[in-house]
Amino acid sequence: xxxxxxxxxxxxxxxTKPLWMRHPRSKFYIYPFWGLFWSVNxxxxxxxxxxxxxxxxxxx
Length: 60
Hints:
Elements: H1 5-14, H2 26-53
């Protein structure tokens, strides 16, 4: 297993991108995370609003 510390250090220190976007594979981690994060928060906020207003699902 090769040690790539120097190459990664150069990559991280020479980039002007935010720290979490500097690695070449970071897009594969960040974008699914943000998609899941916002969808979970949207669903939670939607049902929280329904609970506060007292709206219940109709019985089938």
